[in-house]
Structure formats: C-alpha cells, structure tokens
Amino acid sequence: MPDDRHALDDAFAGATSRRAHGRRIDRVVRYARGGPGMTGPLDGIRIITFTQAWAGTSGTELLGLLGADVIQIESRTHPDVWRGGYAGPIPPAVADPTRRQRRWNVASAYNSVNLNKRAITLDVVDPQGMEIFKRLIPLADVIADNFTPMVMEKWGLSYDVLRSIKPDIIQASLSAYGATGPLREVRGIGGTMEPMSGLTSLLGYEGGRPMNSGSMIPDAIAGLWFAAAIVTALRHRARTGEGQYIDLSMMESNAMITGDAFLEYTANGRVRPRTGNRHPRIAPHNIYPARDGAWLALSADDERQWAALTTAIGRPGLRDDARFSSMEDRKRHEAELDQEIAAWVCEQDASAAEARLLAAGVSAARARARDELLEHPALTERGFGATIEHSEAGTQHLAGVPWRMSRTQPEVRRPAPMLGEHSFEVFEHFLRMSREDYDRLVELGISGDSPPDSGRVSPED
C-alpha cells in the first residue's frame, strides 16, 4: 500500500486511482480543477450542494475558500431565502442606476456567505431536472444539504441511492436536530437553536431573563463543524476509498461549545446562572461605559495583570485593599471592584484607555461597530478583508479568510454567484448539453436565472 502521508495529497490532486484494503479503486472521472481560477488544498474536490441561508452555506463557503469547486443548486421557485425574494426594491446601499440590478442578486446576506462558488438552478422535483442531477452525481465528491432529513428522502436521494450511483460518494446533511430522534422532522434556525442547545440560558444578566446572542451564531458554529466533518470524510476516503454519510445536528453542534457548563453540572450538580459580562472565576471582567459614549472591555486574568491594571489607572493602592488582595477576594467583592474600575473608565476616552491598558499588558478592547472592523490595522495589515467586484451589486468589501497557510493560502477569487449564473456553463462542460437543450429547460422552468413564469409553481420542498 502507498504511504498514508501521501494519500490525502493524491486524493485532493485528482488521483486517477487509489488502493483500499489491498484492492485498486479506479476513478471513473478525473476531477476537473475547481472551476476557473480556483486553487488551494481542496483543488480537485467537487461539492454539489443544496444548502441555503447561513449554516450550510457558510460551511460550503469554507470549502470553496480552500479551493473546492462548490456548485450550489437552487430552483427558480425556491431560491435561497437569503436572496431576499423576488419582490421589492433594490436596497439603497447597493443601488446603482448604471448597472442592471435584480433584487435577488444584490442581497448582502447571500453575497457574504457564498464566495468562491458557482450557482445553477435545477428543479429536481421535475423528472427531467432529477435526471440531470443524477447525471451530475458521478462527477461529485460530496453531495451536501441543510434540509430536514425528510426532504432528500422524499426526492428519492437517500444515501443508499446516491452511493448506488457513485459508490465512494460522501453525503453531508446538516439539519436542526439530526436525521434520527424525536425532532428529526422539526425545522430550526439560529434563533431557536440557541435556546434549544442551552446557549440562551447562559446569556443575560444576573436575575434577568435569558437572552439570545443577537447574531444567529448557531448557524456559523454548525457551519464550521459541517466543513470539518466533510474534510474528515474526504481524508477517510483518501485513505480507504470509502465514502460515507454525515449526519450533523445544529443542536448538538452548539451544545458542544457549552461543555464547561455541562461538566459543571455533571461534576458538581450546579446549574450555571446568568452573569452578564462577568467571568466564573476572574474579576475584574466586564464592559464599562467610557466618557465618549463608547464601551471598554477589560479583564485582569492573573496577579500580574491585576498589578499592571492598578498602576495603569493610577490606583496602586487597590492592591493593598483587603477586599481585592487575591482573585478569590476580588471575585467575592466584584460589585465593589466594578464600581472602582467604572469610576476610572467613565473619565476616559475608550480608544485612549484601550491603548494605555494594552501597553501595560492588560487585556482590554473598545467595543467596535461593524463599520470599523474592516479598517482596523489588525485586520488590514494581515489582508483579512476582501474587495470583490460583483456584476450587479458592484464593489463590495467583505470579510475574508481568517487563517494563513504558508503553502496553500486560501483566497477569495470569485464573488457570490447570481441566481443560475453558471447553469449553462456547468451543463455544457460536464454533460455536453447544447444551448438549444438548455434553452428548452429554461422554457420549462427547470433552469434559468429569473423568477418562474406566472402560474408555474413546483411542489413545496
């Protein structure tokens, strides 16, 4: 057998054969490179995905940033909900009278989480659409979705069906509560996943009501696990030749990040209360209002930082106060300590106070608004932001890749796709479809780049 250290490289480079358990596995189709201009560690991997909104699309976007050829499928009757629908005006922030603009192609929500992808429209409920999709399956490494489990089953696209067409296929399904269990058919969004996974019970002020984060963060968390599971399955296939089915639950993905609170209960029988911006062990640890109307977060995580903080704020005598002589004492008298810190912060400009504390070695940060982030030197000097030219939305400044790789650095190479933008390109290249045949699909409403014809509605997904 070949050295396992090279198995992943061979697979991701589009190797034409592999060995698994001593037998040769021949590739039917050599991978075409990940779409025009795509490079990266997943170059040669193709993901065909039905994902919509944020959780699934953010996960598959990560794979696209890593170089995979991600082909996203929508239908004209059910475009991605983050496109914002067909009706309504162009948002003022992107309106440009010099461009052809269609509402469903300029939605910031959609365009922010679908970078480095191609998009096709294909009504798989229609028999002709399903036949076309099944012809694409042998060309894919991964089929992904974030429907409730019953949708793919209803369409006749179970894992058993997919692997009967392509034995080493990986099917990755992300749903609210997983493909098994009492809630398998229940839909969910980030706003319901937070309370269901236990996150909401930890957020809020002491004695107050539970609160959500306000950012739909469960979607992004599930998307990260989704991408990780897919890359893991690709690694397994590279070593063994075996595909597999991935069943990912948003509830479980988010419950995992509260592991310390779980352990606190299972080990000590204590249900963690809501504590606002305070820390279970550290004091001071809070966010304080500053003189200029901004807010300053700070924390003294150990005795060194505590000493540095008291010196920086001109209150070294606090170290001699018996109430604050140890971390345990400071935590016990946290309300009084917060008053002392707040009295200093309220007389400072937040940015100046931040700089002063950081220079002293104290953890501190001014609470920044979104409109400031892409201009922050900590991001700009590392090349984090991406400036993308979108055919309809115009020039967009977006969050980019949050890590650096010394050999295969991911890059934003393609803006989020317009509805059905690559349908003919994909069908022509992979299925040798003629323009005449494609135009016929458009006439039938099976594909296209615009709203469905009046009166033609496919069955509900």
Give a written overview of the molecule.
This protein is elongated. 36% of the residues are buried. The protein has helices at residues 7-12, 55-65, 108-112, 127-136, 149-154, 159-165, 190-197, 199-202, 217-240, 250-255, 259-268, 303-312, 327-332, 334-345, 350-359, 370-373, 377-380, 423-431, 435-444, and strands spanning 17-20, 23-26, 46-49, 69-74, 117-121, 142-145, 170-175, 245-249, 285-289, 295-299, 363-366, 386-390, 394-398. It contains 19 helices and 13 strands. The chain folds into two domains: 4-257 and 389-444, Rossmann fold (3-Layer(aba) Sandwich); 285-373, 2-Layer Sandwich (formyl-coa transferase, domain 3). The protein is 35% helix and 13% strand. By secondary structure, the protein is an alpha/beta fold. It has a six-stranded parallel sheet with strand order 5-4-3-6-7-8, with helices on both faces.
In the residues, how many domains can be counted?
A: 2
CATH class of the largest domain: Alpha Beta
Give the N-terminus to C-terminus distance in angstroms. Answer: 45 Å
How many helices?
19
What structural class is derived from the secondary structure elements?
alpha/beta
| CATH second-level architecture of the largest domain | 3-Layer(aba) Sandwich
CATH-assigned fold name of the largest domain: Rossmann fold
In order across it, which strands form the biggest sheet? 5-4-3-6-7-8
- Please tell me how large the radius of gyration is: 26 Å
Mean of residue pLDDT values: 88
Major sheet? 6 strands, parallel
